[in-house]
Amino acid sequence: MSSLIPQKEHKFTFGLWTVGNPGRDPFGEPTRAAISAPTIVKELSKLGAYGVNFHDNDLVPINATAAERDKIVHDFKQALSDYGMVVPMATTNLFGDPVFKDGAFTSNDPRVRLYAIQKTMQSMDLGAEVGAKIYVFWGGREGAEVDAAKDAREAIKWFREAINFLCEYSISQGYGYKFAMEAKPNEPRGDIYFPSTGSYLGFINTLDHPEMVGVNPEVGHEHMAGLNFYHVVSQAIEAGKLFHIDLNDQKGCRFDQDLRFGSESLKAMFYLVRLLEDAYDGPRHFDAHAYRSEDEEGVWDFAAGCMRTYLILKEKAAQFEDDPDIQALLAEIKSSDPNFEAIPVKFTAERAKQIKSLDLDRVALAKKKLPYEKLDQLVVDLLLGVR
Q: Sign of the CA dihedral 227, 14, 90, 104?
């Protein structure tokens, strides 16, 4: 089916760290060889992807010389040009190096906090050099195992100071970045300070430039906390703050698994895709990696599978909108007396008086039929291909 062939217009992206993951995990060494950045660009382009994203040190090793850095970036930019790929998003690794063992922007040591800002500015320079306009912040080490060791109130202040500073840096350099904050409840820290997308939505309004800052929700991170990702993303969209999104999958409230998109939560991912197709125009970024059992060929099977599942669910979303039985049930469920729909719930003294005087029969209202069982089964039938 041609509709299931990825096209640039679908804006599918992968991180260098995703398809480039060598199969290492906390209990085992790599199971496949590293893949160079130009090769990743080439192979993803052949599969129909739109672009690639990276942490600074996914592309340039942390100890690279200036000459080595320039050669790596030159070759990467050449590959982007050769294969018609873009870099929509960049980010910084503020979690891997031992210097960040107790946090980056929230380290107790001001020298570490300054180094984290320095490293991020250099990474922002690199991202801007290759055309990135979205900059993601994932605070993987911004947390604690021992709460006695760090005042969380101070840590949040330090984090705010860093983001405010970096917003000003972007403005001063004319980079035009939109910052996207990525939440996670735990891992690698016992507790991470901003554990959910909702916590970041609250934090953003305390910044000097809240208009520059949004969120980057990730499926697996919210599922680790037992949350409904469709609801999380809906709140971000309603707030005008969905600047980027990380797509993967997860087996419940476990360690961060970064599974192939749609491999576990098909119904949940169906509602997500339906929402994104209706209300989001940004990159569809797959922050996932192939099973450790795969060789390089399996890595490209994994990448193709992420995009294929998204496109299948996109087709299912269109079928949902066109299905007469589903739409009839929705019309029944949402039906109401039009005389009441005309009453806006916006406070004035007169409106309060009007609402208090309404004849709203709770017993009659409770008897309204809500055929959710039938509706849900129709969705299941649709997803299983029998409609």
A: positive
Closest CA to 219 of 313, 284, 278: 284
Contacts of 30 (CB under 8 A, 6+ apart): 22, 23, 24
pLDDT bin (cut points 50, 70, 90) of residue 1 is low
| Average predicted confidence (pLDDT) for the chain | 97
d(CA 245, CA 280): 10
Structure tokens at 251: 């087996």
Give the residue numbers annotated as catalytic, written as ranges: 55, 58
CB 313: neighbour CB atoms within 10 A? 23
Find out whether the peptide bond into 26 is cis, omega within 30 degrees of 0: no
Q: What's the pLDDT at 95?
A: 98
What tens digit of pLDDT does each residue of 114-150 get?
A: 999 999 999 999 999 999 999 999 999 999 999 999 9
pLDDT at 166: 98
Residue type, 30: P
162 within 8 A of 105, measured Cβ to Cβ: yes
Report pLDDT for 364: 94
Say which residues have a Cβ less than 8 Å from residue 301's Cβ, sequence separation at least 6.
290, 294
| pTM, entire model | 0.97
Q: Supply the pLDDT for residue 208.
A: 98
Bridge partners of 89, per DSSP, are 134
Q: Which two tokens stand for residue 31?
A: 């199971």
Cα–Cα nearest to 136, from 299, 13, 238 = 13
Cα–Cα distance measured from residue 354 to residue 98, given in angstroms and rounded to the nearest whole number: 64
For residue 183, give the nearest of 220, 149, 157 by alpha carbon. 220
